[in-house]
Amino acid sequence: MKNILLFILFSLAINLFAEDGSRLWLRYELLSEQISENYKQIISTVCPITYSETTKIITREFLSAFEDMTGKRLNLSKKRTGNCLVFLIDKKIEKGYSIQTQKDNKSGISILIAAADDINLLYGTFHLLRLMQMQGNISDLNIVEKPAYDRRILNHWDNIDGTIERGYAGRSLWNWEDLPEKSDPRYTEYARANASIGINGTVLNNVNANPKFISREYLIKTAEIANIFRKWGIRVYLSVNFSSPSELGGLPTSDPLNKEVRRWWKEKAKEIYSFIPDFGGFLVKANSEGLPGPQDFGRTHVDGANLLAEALEPYGGIVMWRAFVYDAKSTDRAKQAYDEFMPLDGRFHKNVIIQVKNGPIDFQPREPLHPLFGAMQKTPLMIEFQITQEYLGFSKQLAYLAPLYVECLQSDTYAKGKGSVTAKCTDGTLFPQTITAIAGVANTGNDSNWTGHHFAQANWYCFGRLAWNHELTSEHIADEWLRMTFSNETAFIEPVKRMMAESREAVVNYMMPLGLAHLFAWEHHYGPEPWLNIPDARPDWMPSYYHKADAIGLGFDRTHAGSNAVSQYFPPLSTIYDQIETCPENLLLWFHHVPWNYRMQNGNTLWENLCRKYQDGVEAAREFQKIWDKTAFFIDKERFEHVQSKLKVQTRDAIWWRDACLLYFQTFSRQPIPYEQERPVHTLEELNVSKF
Amino acid sequence: MKNILLFILFSLAINLFAEDGSRLWLRYELLSEQISENYKQIISTVCPITYSETTKIITREFLSAFEDMTGKRLNLSKKRTGNCLVFLIDKKIEKGYSIQTQKDNKSGISILIAAADDINLLYGTFHLLRLMQMQGNISDLNIVEKPAYDRRILNHWDNIDGTIERGYAGRSLWNWEDLPEKSDPRYTEYARANASIGINGTVLNNVNANPKFISREYLIKTAEIANIFRKWGIRVYLSVNFSSPSELGGLPTSDPLNKEVRRWWKEKAKEIYSFIPDFGGFLVKANSEGLPGPQDFGRTHVDGANLLAEALEPYGGIVMWRAFVYDAKSTDRAKQAYDEFMPLDGRFHKNVIIQVKNGPIDFQPREPLHPLFGAMQKTPLMIEFQITQEYLGFSKQLAYLAPLYVECLQSDTYAKGKGSVTAKCTDGTLFPQTITAIAGVANTGNDSNWTGHHFAQANWYCFGRLAWNHELTSEHIADEWLRMTFSNETAFIEPVKRMMAESREAVVNYMMPLGLAHLFAWEHHYGPEPWLNIPDARPDWMPSYYHKADAIGLGFDRTHAGSNAVSQYFPPLSTIYDQIETCPENLLLWFHHVPWNYRMQNGNTLWENLCRKYQDGVEAAREFQKIWDKTAFFIDKERFEHVQSKLKVQTRDAIWWRDACLLYFQTFSRQPIPYEQERPVHTLEELNVSKF
Fold first, then answer.
1. By residue range, what is the domain housing residue B513?
2. Which of A25, A55, A519, B355 has its CA 20 to 30 A from that of A84?
3. Among partner residues B626, B676, B685, which is closest to A679 by beta-carbon distance?
4. B265 and B307 in contact (C-beta within 8 Å)?
């Protein structure tokens, strides 16, 4: 009887914490007795500083986390004694924070977190807590951390009606209906999660911007969010519609050189700052995919960006002007941003930064680096990554994106000779940048686990970590995230880390290996539709524009004999890409139209390698399932089963991709899929009609 | 220009013969020059006999086939000369035919086909043509062939409205609307195909019989079909509804002991024979699955069968009375036919034969033999096989059924000691049978390839061949069929024959290994629904009735401690099945409720073996795809692609089966699927709602 009662109580206790992923990587699980004894010896008291909302947050976060992890409620002390955690404001520290262990013969060990302001102290606190979550040694710390980019920003493509463009984790977190009267507790949770990884800016609304977002009505709502975010160090930004003066302000034009328009923007900026004194600035998608922009009035991107920049300048705001432009008439979409923006280099106002997607097309599973990086040397550039998996399997598939981000950050542009990696071209190292920034298109929504797929949390996490320190390795970040989010067990960590490390390449392989791009379905960007052909639609929205499959071969000729996009890169990259022999094979079909029987480095033909890559992708997905199924012992049933179920879908859809692409390309190659390889299980006829 | 014209002509020529499978195994492809030279030397003239429609058919068939295969139009000669094909009526030959090569010093070689009647001469002719299609040596023939069963019958489950119960190849071949005025050329093609493999009877309509089929209106229609079939040696039979006297005749009852009822059936028989003088007889499904029968009037199967037998006797007709009976209240459906029929043994009229399905349940992928075989020793029994793949993947999956038929035919009943195989218990060898017969539920329909799947033609073919000679091996029959239907190339034959040989076991493995049965979906008998539970439905129509999965184990306890169905078999079979140690593992779960951790012969547990079998099935299906893809070189594109496409579906659905069954049974076993094994790609949640 007693046992039964205990069992019931135990069951109830378990149910109190539904393992729905809502706690992200901030779980603060109870540590082993040995570890927690050690921590309790090192820290027995906290000496807080208390001058702001943020410093209160720091104390609360640390005390609560420490108690969760060790079971011990720490004492607060105003006087610094031994075994004390001490916070110090040190204005000499220009950026970031330091964490030092200080040994004093009299008072014993202290841990000192120092920074120039409360926000950086908060970052240092989260750093220390992360070490403890990972069961690290905190008895001998000598940490100095500086952020790589000053502005580490999430872009939310959230619409005013609560939907999210390319969102796969529910509806928008921002509840505009209820604001400003009622604000969701999740605004705080969101800010806390971001602060824990150093993110300090949020563009609340979609780049396809509704002008209403800068109306007085919505500024009042936004101010409420900004008030909550502020104490977590997060500044609010807004996407603006270039036609706002006419659409919102009722002016007859939005021409950037028009006086009334200029005045309207200045007044709008003044109004914004009256509600949100630390407002970050504007993000602008102009003259892109049907959005209005300065070119509608015969003006340039410079005219447009500077108009807004001048309006924001008095208040310290910036303009993030997107370089994502392409034109239906262009012969090669990959070239257009460079062609349009290079002539404007040096002409932008000093508080303008150009936001450039990592690759020249659009967040494909693999692209070469964008040629503007390193090229626009007189204008600040910022990288835009996509965290939401628009082209990498939505929240249905596990694709850990740190390898993609690192690949871009560490790609050599050769702008100033060897070693001029993208990271250094954008963080102020190689070129004087008045602003440094980095953006990631958020994958959050109101799903209880925030990101739809539990492993998609890792992409939010790794974006933040890399924005802080672009020299971190993918593996290091995965290790941190896994330990905090799931378990410190090596038997869990090692195989799952391997799975994460291989996951993005797996997606590349079963979707678009060897430099293929944009074979996605018209409607959803999830499944394959390489055969898509809609008469009268924009050719650069058709997969055939990208793959160029024909009887001879496959791939887009961007060499000097083709579109010459290679010429947009610095030597020797331009030559490396131009020559089929030196072009990296993982970008081969991006730069070359390659004959089906072309012999690749392994001695097999293009067709054989293509088949093999697709099969490799499928087999990797199957391997992920095997790896994951063995983790059941280490983690909670709820998240185990959720991920298990997603991995099933991933394998199934990997097969869908493989079959669709191989069967379609086979109609051109007219060669069998190598007979030793697993055969398709779909037919083209059936795939042509199958819908997502 | 000339080349283009030639090309056009060539293309047209190709299109004249669409490779749609309509020619079945009677293709008579042009042979190699060497072979055809040899045949032309051996046969230069045909000496026909001409006394019937059938003898005309023989001459036409041989001349046309010979010309197709060799390019040579043979001469006809009334006088027997050298190198002549001669036909001889020899009344001394009781059954079957002989084919002899006779060497005469004067006139050279002759080939002599001899038989007691024209129909057997036709069979001999098809035999010779088969040898030639297979490029056999015909210079030294000494063949004597006798059929194993006198009546070799197809059962068509065709309805009056043109639908086919369990038909997967289009609608019924019989066009009742147009008959008798217009008869379809396909009636002749159908009869010819059957004659070519020795089938000599056809039950035209569904055993779930509409009484209208024996109305005067429909007898006139049926007579037209019978007229066409007659010259090909095929007798027409009809399924009758036991309530016909009341439903069709308007009598107040259909009680078999009622005088009016008896008179009605006698007059009906007379009427039938006035239209169809060689009418074969009745097939009856009575007191089975809601169909009426003698038990409705408190009478027995004997009363019912004998009623009809007496009516047909004056005209030489027979009654095929089905033993497929089972009752919702029975504790074990597998036992009921035996329990109901054994007490009636010896009481049936001499022109009654009991038609018994191969296994005790219902055409499952694997069943033990039906216990009535060998047991009813004073009543003729006939085996009913199912050619249409109701439970073996419809016409979507490749499952060559000769191994299933042979397994049943060669199963030892031990009725008269060792070696009392089912075949010998039904062909008159062991028991005096006034009638010998065998039936197969047809898989034909009006699809251009007759059977939906090109390889399903092989099941029609092998049924006919085994009905003629039950000692043929599956492999031998596959070899014949492949050579005639596709190609004589060894590189084609060998792998495809292997695929066929393994195909039925593959289906067993991915659907219902180790003796499982009836896990099918309620509505379609195609996909898995092991979880099915419809409250208030007949329990013996629910999969759980058959698999009995629970926390302890899996399988139906039919041992002496359970339903004791084992006692219906002769010793030592009863003991072999009763003991878990001796029970064949491929029937283990048919006879035993086996604990999940029971160690099987290979040292692994039941659960592990179950998982492995399902995976083996999936891998076999994948292997079939690989084998088939390599055949493209040897055969026409049309059939290649058709089969290729079906094999894709088969692999996909094999995975569906594996996942559904393993995930469902896992909810009982509570054990992981062995980690080295490929993981499921479906979830139970999704499968529960997925529809066919």
1. 509-556+593-689
2. A25
3. B626
4. yes
Q: In chain B, which residues touch A (CB < 8 A)?
A: 622, 625-626, 629-630, 632, 645, 647-649, 651-652, 655, 672-673, 675-676, 678-683, 685
| Residue carrying structure tokens 């010979």 | B66
Q: How many alpha carbons fall within 13 Å on the CB side of residue B140?
A: 1
Please name which of B134, B200, B216 lies closest in space to residue B482, comparing C-alpha atoms: B134
Last residue of a domain, one of A145, A160, A187: A145
pLDDT, mean of residues A556-564: 98
Task: Kindly determine whether residue B678 and residue A652, on different chains, have CB atoms separated by under 8 Å.
Answer: no
Report the number of distinct structural domains present in chain A.
3
Burial of B564 (0-12, 13-18, 19+ CB in 10 A): middle
**Which residues does chain B have within 8 Å of residue A634's beta carbon, measured at their own beta carbons?**
none
Closest partner residue to A629 (CB to CB) among B645, B672, B682 is B672
Q: Are A535 and A659 found together in one domain? A: yes
Residue numbers in B near A622 (CB within 8 A): 678-679
The yes-or-no answer on residue A332 being catalytic is: no
Given a cut of 70, the residues of chain B with pLDDT beneath it are 1-17, 689-692
Structural domain contains residue B318: yes
Residues A375, A237, single domain; the answer is yes
Chain B hits for A651, CB-CB cut-off 8 Å, are 679, 681
Task: For B98, list phi and psi in degrees, rounded to 5.
Answer: -130, 150
Whether residue A230 is predicted with pLDDT greater than 60 in this model: the reply is yes
Question: What pLDDT score was predicted for residue A327?
Answer: 82
CB contact under 8 Å between B681 and A652, yes or no, is yes
Residues A159 and A61 placed together within one structural domain of the fold: no
Span B360-392, pLDDT tens digits? 999 999 999 999 999 999 999 999 999 999 999
pLDDT digits (tens, 9 = 90+) for A107-126: 778 999 999 999 999 999 99
User: Tokens representing A252?
Assistant: 């007859």
Instruction: Look over chain B and give the mean of its residue pLDDT values, rounded to a whole number.
Output: 95
Which residue do the tokens 């009344």 mark? B91
Same domain? For A516 and A384 the reply is: no
A337-354 tens-digit pLDDT:
999 999 999 999 999 999
- Residues near A53 by beta carbon (within 8 Å), at least 6 away in sequence: A230, A231
- Distance, CA of B534 to CA of A108 (rounded, Å): 73
Residue A336's CB is within 10 A of a number of other CB atoms, namely: 20
Confidence of residue A13 (pLDDT cuts 50, 70, 90): very low
Statement to judge: residues A537 and A416 lie in one domain: no
The answer to whether residue B620 is domain-embedded is yes
* Chain segment A70-84, per-residue pLDDT in tens: 999 999 998 887 899
Predicted confidence at residue B688, as pLDDT, reads 82
Residue with the larger pLDDT of the pair A624 and B541: A624
Round to whole Å and give the CA distance between B25 and A43: 87
Mean pLDDT over residues A61-76, rounded?
Answer: 97
Residues B104 and B253 in one domain: no
Long-range contacts at A263-266 (CB < 8 A, ≥ 24 apart)? A265/A307, A265/A308, A265/A311, A266/A310, A266/A311
Residues whose CB is less than 8 angstroms from the CB of residue A501 and which lie 6 or more positions away in sequence, other chains included: A400, A403, A474, A475, A478
Going by C-alpha positions, the residue among B109, B99, B105 that lies closest to residue B132 is B99
User: What is the model's pLDDT at position A360?
Assistant: 97
Distance CA B39, CA B131 (A): 11
**B313 among known catalytic residues:** no
Residues of A in CB contact (< 8 Å) with B are: 622, 625-626, 629-630, 632, 645, 647-649, 651-652, 655, 672-673, 675-676, 678-683, 685
Q: Are residues B78 and B207 in the same domain?
A: no
The answer to whether residue A22 is domain-embedded is: no
Q: What is the pTM of this model?
A: 0.91
Q: Which of B402, B353, B439 is nearest to B155 (CA)?
A: B439
Q: Specify whether B362 is catalytic.
A: yes
B144: helix, strand or coil: strand
Question: How far is Cα B518 from Cα B542, in angstroms, rounded to an integer?
Answer: 8
